[in-house]
Amino acid sequence: MPSNPDIIGATSYSGLTAMQVDNFKDVFEKFLKDIRPARILEIGTSSGGLTMALNDIMMSLEIPYDIRTYDVNDQLWFWRLENDGIDVRIENLFTPDYLNLDPEKIDDIRSFIQGPGTTVVMCDGGSKLNEFRLLSPLIKTGDFIMAHDYALNPQFFEENINGIIWNWLEIHGDQIADVCVDNNLQDYMKDEFQNIVWACKVKR
After folding, report:
1. pLDDT tens digits, residue range 31-81?
2. Looking at the DSSP assignment, which residues form a beta bridge with residue 199?
3. Residues whose CB falls within 8 Å of the CB of residue 104, separated by 6 or more in sequence, listed in order
């Protein structure tokens, strides 16, 4: 997993840019081995490095699983993901203002999330706060929802993250406090995921 120490976020995996903190794979490997999910839904495929890493971890578990990833932009390297059995979809699940789910896609995405077994929903697209708000009500008890470019609050970001391990803050804990209460979402591996700028919540 080579990276350029001079460029924060330059981590790569299997030749694909991951846009993650360097030790991201170790944290996700522990997480996925602990919860052994039946499926992963990723919003924001981007350069595909994270998607590939997740798929490799899941393959190592030797259990049935599905990975579906969405992006609004097609990329030349997506064929590599598809060749590895990853369901890559070039479409937007949300309305253009990101204030609602696309009415034509709600039933399909709900059906995917609420299938048997544990689902992990990962919000890493162009509007992480809205993605988190709109998808949280769809997960079932025991499922997980996550968001990237995350910090507990802006002060924590400036003191512990910005320019140190990461440069982007697109969602923070104060913004999702009400969503977590409304949907009974609780922290899971809080410190480990904060160290790689992800939020991770489980529905109880």
Report:
1. 999 999 999 999 999 999 999 999 999 999 999 999 999 999 999 999 999
2. 147
3. none
Q: Identify which of 115, 136, 137 has the alpha carbon closest to the alpha carbon of residue 66.
A: 115
Structure tokens given for 116: 């048997």
Closest CA to 42 of 10, 9, 8, 65: 65
161 inside domain: yes
**172 near 129, Cβ under 8 Å?**
no
**16 in any annotated domain:** no
177-191, pLDDT tens digit by residue? 999 999 999 999 999
Q: Do residues 47 and 16 touch, judged by C-beta distance below 8 A?
A: yes
CATH number at residue 156: 3.40.50.150
How many structural domains does the chain have?
1
Backbone angles phi, psi at 174, to 5 degrees: -60, -30
Supply the DSSP symbol for 137.
G
pTM for the predicted model, two decimal places? 0.95
Quick one: CA torsion of 1, 50, 77, 170, rounded to 10 degrees? -120
Helix (H) or strand (E) holding 123, with range, is strand 119-123
